[in-house]
Specification:
The protein is built from 6 helices and 2 strands. A two-stranded parallel sheet has the order 1-2.
Length: about 140
């Protein structure tokens, strides 16, 4: 009864002309679950850019991925697989970004950085870069 209600209220069938069109539509929809049931599903896999979980071949059904194969059941929904990934162990790890610029690197891109800061009305950010650029120029001069 649950499946029937889901099919009646939410199911959509899209008939495509070829596998390329199917891939394009898939990448646009960015499904939570994607089952690839072709003769060679691994040949299609490199072209899939946006899907939460991808099930390859006729024996790899969605419940296998949800409950048994190892990945978790927490997947991006509503097309958000275009910009989010499934929940993974890395989400529970603390990490830091490490940034280190040389004076030459700052001289190359510092003005562009300051301009971006100014465009965001972050004048102190812009000044922090411009002050350092001035110091670089004074040391070279």
């Amino acid at each position: 009864k649950i499946a029937q209600a889901s099919i009646e209220n939410r199911a959509v069938m899209i008939h495509t002309r070829n596998i390329k069109e199917s891939i394009e539509i898939t990448n646009t929809i960015a499904p939570e679950h994607l089952e690839i049931l072709t003769k060679s599903p691994f040949d299609v896999l490199p072209y899939i850019k946006h899907a939460g979980a991808i099930f390859l071949g006729e024996y790899s059904s969605e419940p296998i991925g949800d409950y048994l194969a190892g990945p978790n059941h927490t997947l991006p929904t509503g097309g958000s697989a275009r910009f989010f990934s499934p929940l993974g162990v890395e989400h529970f790890m603390k990490r830091s970004s490490i940034i280190s610029f040389s004076s030459n690197a700052l001289a190359e891109v510092g003005e562009a950085c300051a301009l971006l800061a100014q465009c965001e009305s972050l004048s102190a950010h812009a000044q922090a870069v411009l002050t350092r650029l001035e110091n670089v120029k004074n040391k070279k001069g």
